[in-house]
Automatic annotation (TrEMBL):
The lineage of its organism: Eukaryota, Fungi, Dikarya, Ascomycota, Pezizomycotina. Transmembrane segments: none annotated. It comes from the Eukaryota. Pfam families: ADH_N, ADH_zinc_N. Belongs to the zinc-containing alcohol dehydrogenase family. It comes from Orbilia oligospora. Its cofactor is Zn(2+). This is Enoyl reductase (ER) domain-containing protein.
Length: 293
C-alpha cells in the first residue's frame, strides 16, 4: 500500500477536485474504512452551488476540527473495515466487516454532549463537511463508536442510505408519530421518501405527499402502488390547493393531518405544512434550503 490515495476535495463553490492526498493516520480508538458507496446529500449540492456554507472557509477554521477548505466531501457512506486502530478490540467491529457511518462530529465535553445530545454539540460538525475526512476517498478513519455493522443482507449501496433514513426516523421519533396518526409529507425527494418508508414501517395508514416534480411524483406513486393496504395520496400543488385537499382528506371535520413533515425547506413548503396541520398537531422541518427557488 502506498502512502497516498485519491480523494474528492471541495475547494469552494463549483470547485471540486479529485486529488492525491496522504492516507490518513489511524489513531487510537479509530477504525479505518474503505468507502464503497457514498451518497450526494442536498447539503453537498448547496455547498457546491453557493458554498462555503457549513464547510469552513479558509479564514474561518472549524471550531472543533480546526480544518478549512479544501476538505474531503461525503457523509452518506458505507464500506468495509480494513484496519482496527490501537485500543480497538475485535468484537463488535472486525476487519472485513461491512459498515455504515454515523457522520456526527462532537467534542463530548460541552453541556449538550454531557446531556447525551451530541447532535446538538456546541462545537459540532459533520464528517465529510467539517474536516477529518469524508466518504469520497479511498480510505478514511473514524472513531469506533461512529462505525456501525451492516446486517449480512444489507449491501453497501443500501448501507449508504442509512444516514438519510436515520434523519427521517429521528423526525418520526421526535414527532411521537403513532400508527393511528395521519401524515402530510411536503416534498418527495430522498428525505421525503425516507419519511414515507419510515411511516410505512411504523404501520401508519393515511399518508399524503405533496410534490411538484413529475419524476418524484412517479417515485412516490410507485412506492404507493406496492402498499395498497395504506391510503397514500400524492398531491401536486401546481394543480390543486394542497392545504385545502389535505384538510378534506384527513377526516374528522376538515381538521387536516396530525403530523406534517416539511422535506423541501422552501417558503412555499413551510407555508403548506403549517397551513395544513390540524390544531394541536405536530410539524417537523427536515430540510433547509439556503438557495431561493
Ligand atoms: Zn459537545
Amino acid at each position: 500500500m502506498t502512502d497516498s490515495m485519491k480523494a474528492l476535495r471541495y475547494h469552494g463553490a463549483k470547485d471540486l477536485r479529485v486529488e492525491s492526498v496522504p492516507i490518513p493516520e489511524l489513531l487510537p480508538g479509530q477504525v479505518k474504512v474503505k468507502p464503497e458507496w457514498c451518497g450526494i446529500c442536498g447539503t453537498d449540492l448547496h455547498e457546491y452551488i453557493t458554498g462555503p456554507i457549513l464547510t469552513p472557509a479558509v479564514d474561518k477554521p472549524h471550531r472543533l476540527t480546526g480544518c478549512t477548505v479544501p476538505l474531503i466531501m461525503g457523509h452518506e457512506f458505507a464500506g468495509e473495515i480494513v484496519e482496527l486502530g490501537p485500543g480497538v478490540e475485535p468484537g463488535r467491529l472486525k476487519v472485513g466487516m461491512k459498515v455504515c457511518i454515523e457522520p456526527a462530529l462532537f467534542d463530548d465535553t460541552c453541556p449538550p454532549c454531557l446531556d447525551r445530545r451530541r447532535n446538538c454539540c456546541d462545537r459540532g460538525g459533520f464528517f465529510g463537511l467539517s474536516g477529518w475526512g469524508g466518504g469520497f476517498s479511498e480510505y478514511t478513519c473514524l472513531q469506533e463508536k461512529l462505525v456501525h455493522p451492516l446486517p449480512d443482507n444489507v449491501p453497501t449501496d443500501i448501507g449508504a442510505l442509512v444516514e438519510p433514513l436515520a434523519v427521517a426516523w429521528h423526525a418520526l421519533k421526535a414527532a411521537g408519530h403513532t400508527p393511528d396518526r395521519s401524515a402530510l409529507i411536503v416534498g418527495a425527494g430522498p428525505i421525503g421518501l425516507a419519511v414515507l418508508f419510515c411511516l410505512l414501517a411504523r404501520g401508519c395508514r393515511q399518508i399524503l405527499i405533496s410534490e411538484v416534480s413529475p419524476q418524484r411524483i412517479k417515485h412516490a406513486l410507485e412506492i404507493a402502488s406496492s402498499h395498497p393496504e395504506v391510503d397514500i395520496r400524492v398531491l401536486d400543488p401546481t394543480k390543486e390547493d394542497v392545504v385545502v385537499r389535505a384538510k378534506e382528506l384527513c377526516s374528522q371535520g376538515n381538521q387536516g393531518p396530525n403530523v406534517v413533515y416539511d422535506c423541501a425547506g422552501v417558503q412555499k413548503s413551510i407555508d403548506a405544512a403549517i397551513g395544513a396541520v390540524r390544531k394541536g398537531g405536530v410539524g417537523k422541518t427536515l430540510q433547509y434550503s439556503p438557495i431561493p427557488k
